[in-house]
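Form 12-C: Joint structure prediction
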Amino acid sequence: MNDKLYKVLLFAVALIMPVVCGGVVYALVTDAYEAFEHFGFLNFLTSSEWSYTEGAEQYGALPFITGTLMTTLLALIFCIPFSLPVALFVGEYFEGTKVAAVLSTVTDLLAGIPSIIYGLWGFYTLRPIIMALNISPQGSGVLTASLVLAIMIIPYAASLSAEFIKMVPNDLKEGAYSLGATRAEVIRKIVFPVAGSGIFSSYILAIGRALGETMTVTMLIGNTNNIPDSITSTGNSMASIIANQFGEADDLRLSSLIAIGLILFLITAAINMVGKIMIKRARIV
Amino acid sequence: MKKILSSMMTLAVVLALTACGGNSNDGGRKAQELSGAGATFPLPFYNVVFENFSQVNGDVVAYGGIGSGGGVRNLRDKIVDFAGSDAFLSDKEMAEMNPVIHIPTCMGAVVVAYNLDGVDELKLSGEVIADIFAGNIKMWNDERLATLNPDVTLPAEAIIPVFRSDGSGTTFVFTDYLTKVSPMWKEKFGAGKSVNFPSGQAAKGNPGVAGVVKQTKNSIGYVGSEYAFAQNIPYAQIQNVRGEFVLPSSASISAAASGVIPADTRCSITNADAAGAYPISTFTWMIIYKEQNYSDRSKEQAVATLDLLQYILSDEVQKITSEVHYAPLPDKAKELSMKNLKAVTFDGEAILQ
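Section 2 - Result
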């Protein structure tokens, strides 16, 4: 009897999550409908106009999709040379040592810092450096946002990759060593191929994190509504345009912002799903 | 969805109201909790006023600086007692909602702040400002800037215009001015709370723009006067209709309102034709419904709302304006506003006698 009650309760509580998720999707779709209907779904995705002129309002998501993809991709590129060595250090070279424990704790600590702090650091420290180096006159832009994003996603990529590197069976590595392989060869020929899809999935999850990052990007990207023509120019990401404009938006503009939110939701969900599937595969190996 | 949300918020407000109360004020009514939302431009002034008001009356005012447009939307959704706005409602917007009245609370200026090494005096004309923000004047050592500033050596650096990334009453006032002084601006960009600035970078809110200008060499941006002052950023003298170069100050802002004010106080005073007038000046308004019985509001709440507005119009409060870098309302605006307040009703009956 008690067991049954417990089961029913558990079921009811577990049901809340899918209901909330469904509710979010429902609300996004209904509120975004006006924009899709007015501009056409494909046209909305591919139009680069974001123009407020009353009566001739024209909203398209392309500049923001581009902005999001550019910052995310750059952040990923900047993050790899830092996160991969950390993962190897913690998961292979110094596995189980105190140094590794300290390093992994410090890396994980980075994940706990609120994004506004990263934003402030980027705004007051990194931006003046970018200006001083003459990389861009205004300091803010896609590059600045990507650099800070890269630091933000390092812990996600590093600690998960380290886990997968640790999981590489010792027999395999010992076999390689017995054949006279050097450590570098073991890493290249054994560790990477075996842990590869796991490492890949950890980067996918890191991307998922970078895609939706709002505060930091809003503070650093420069917030202009056009497609960035170089990595040093200003732009807007999908998250930052919403953060910037929802307060004043109504009618068609609000609907367009929600439509952008929906697209962001779909992209993030798809990327996370790919990551999850890859992790599952990695476990089987 | 939106309706459910707003009714839930109203419920929360009502609950909060019934929960508090208690200490009654001298008027014999219970202390109320008022909520408003809108412009960030007058926020520093409102913070002082609301603080004083709660000490005088016991009424607590919660004001969310979410931007003029957001404030008006909250009023339209009937979830606030008043909206703060730097832009008066257009006839079209007025037609879309129940009758409202505009009460000006103070005057302010949008200043053109800049960050230039070794330059502490900069003179600009409206047309030059329009061309800078339109991206037509790209360099600080442009001929037209040099002609306006013969005594200053301007650097051969690119100008970085800084504007608002969010919709804003400040942007409206600034572009309203540019529309009046530059036919090019009027045709290509127009006036509005959001405008497609073609070059430079954007930041959120007055504090955001002020922060970016302060941090970025060779930049120029438009901000509420108070914010430029608080960040200690220099701002330009701007040429008015009479050809004078004027710095924003309480006196020069007040001078801009010396002209005719319409009965509902909805008017733009940018580019005012008056001696000593600072050309990018504006009223900032609180907007309330003419019929105060909506969303289950109590009569006491309506009375408290009017008490607040009368308090703001009082000489005592208007004196504070210049202390916090705004300017007091002209007598004419106060007179008209008191008259407009008398038209406010609760269940069809006038609240003030």
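Section 3 - Comments
Chain B touches chain A through 33 residues (CB under 8 Å). The radius of gyration of chain B is 21 Å.
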